[in-house]
Each structure stands twice: as structure tokens, then as C-alpha cells.
Design goal:
The chain has 50 residues and is mainly α. The longest helix has 42 residues.
Length: 50
């Protein structure tokens, strides 16, 4: 029984670290993704000449 508790605690700790890591990586990539999105919008924007 104590082995099961230890495994559950390890899984909870691992899940916590993975959530923190994904939050930091997500915040770090936001400016990069914003620039890529803007570049794609400019590249595929239809330019209508009147």
C-alpha cells in the first residue's frame, strides 16, 4: 500500500513540473508565434488595386 501512495505522489509531482514547464515555454513562445502569424497574414493578404 505505501508503494502505491509513493507512485501517486511521484506522478503528481511530475505532472506539476510538466505544467509549470509548459506554462513557461508557452509564455516564451507567444512573441515568436505573434510575429509568425503577422508575417503569414502579410504574405497571404490580397492586395486589391483600385
Amino acid at each position: 500500500m505505501p508503494d502505491i501512495v509513493e507512485v501517486v505522489l511521484w506522478c503528481a509531482a511530475l505532472a506539476t513540473w510538466l505544467m509549470l514547464l509548459s506554462a513557461f515555454v508557452g509564455n516564451a513562445l507567444k512573441p515568436l508565434l505573434k510575429n509568425i502569424r503577422r508575417a503569414l497574414e502579410d504574405a497571404f493578404k490580397l492586395k486589391l488595386k483600385r
